[in-house]
Amino acid sequence: MTTRDLLRANHEKILEQYRSNLEGLLTLQTTLIYDILPSVVDELGLGPDASEWAKQWLEDTSSLFRISRRNNFTRSFAMEAVRKTLIWRFSNLWPVGPSQSMPIMHCLPGWVRDPFGRPILVIKAVSTNGDSGTLKARVIQTFERLRILMKHFVAEETSGPQLPTLQYIILVDLKEFSYKNFNIDLITWIIREVIPRFPGLLAGVFVLNYTWMHGGIWNIVKRILPASALSRVFFPSQEELIRYFTRLALPKDYGGSLPFLTQLDDPLRIHEPPLIIPHKQTSFSPSPSQPPAFSSITSLSPTSLLNPYFGYPISSTHGSPFLHHGRRRKRDLLRTLAVLLWARWRKFVIFGLLIALGTLTFRRGVRKDPLFLRSLMFPQRLIHSWGSRINILS
């Protein structure tokens, strides 16, 4: 199978998966926004700015599709994966600070695509010297910018009948790369920690200017990559590269007819994520002339037959029930289970307690007074005996 045939087959497969799973994906998206997100925000003690920022990510249908696809479109697995990714994003991307550009990466203009309509990225592999923490932060920000740019491309395409663009094609230029620049720890971290947070974003990788000197590096990298990723890494010759992309989709740096890479516009620099500075939530009291917002809210018992979330106390605003989120949800469920258990078994529990109490009383009576057992059989004699003792003492 040629490179074009393989990439065409993968392209058609992912579009068919998107088409067939879109309805379930939109349902999942609603659950994530109105149920999972408030729970995570409450659990982490975050404010409305963080909630709105995370909601924008959850509204990115293509990102949710890629996560669901990684989890074989199993709803429970996808939901848990999104929740973990959401927490990871709060830890690594929030608050949104000044964007740190990576000069080694360049995105060709939006109108330049591969034969199947995918945007093209060019990465010039160079030295990775520098602080490890700074490099990792830049890598994460770069992947986030790629996600945002892809979302922008999808937004531009929604006006037409065609399915959205879901993946990039990457050209990796090894011309200035050498073994002494190789950072295996960083590469391993990217493959195992970052890419799973942005799954399915890359459709294929074309490695350019590959020589025998890079063979040792590739032998190390291919041991880290999964088999599915290995099948999408190509080492084309100049002729094969032009045959796949055509000269109209390549800069002059790689034998194409477009201007040199440094002379082309870069959408990554145009669509940078906005800077967000979280602010403290200020409290306010409603004016006397304006009724409180919660005046129309009614609560339902956890065990009410009208409660769609049986076991959890909910509130209903204008007929739309919603859960109270946070750690107390587990406590609410345990409380409801205890109430149901008591309602079902209370007669047996009370009966058992009475028997246990009677048995304990009987044993203590026998142990303290030898006449106790006989008194049960001969109560008149016991009364006479106790009366005689009282007369002697008096």
UniProtKB/TrEMBL annotation:
Pfam hit, one: CRAL_TRIO
CDD domains assigned to the protein according to its UniProt record, in alphabetical order: SEC14 (cd00170)
Database matches in Gene3D superfamilies: CRAL-TRIO lipid binding domain (3.40.525.10)
Boundaries of every CRAL-TRIO domain copy: 113-262
Source species, domain of life: Eukaryota
InterPro entries, sorted: CRAL-TRIO_dom (IPR001251), CRAL-TRIO_dom_sf (IPR036865), PITP/CRAL-TRIO (IPR052432)
PANTHER family membership: CRAL-TRIO DOMAIN-CONTAINING PROTEIN, PHOSPHATIDYLINOSITOL TRANSFER PROTEIN CSR1-RELATED
Protein name: CRAL-TRIO domain-containing protein
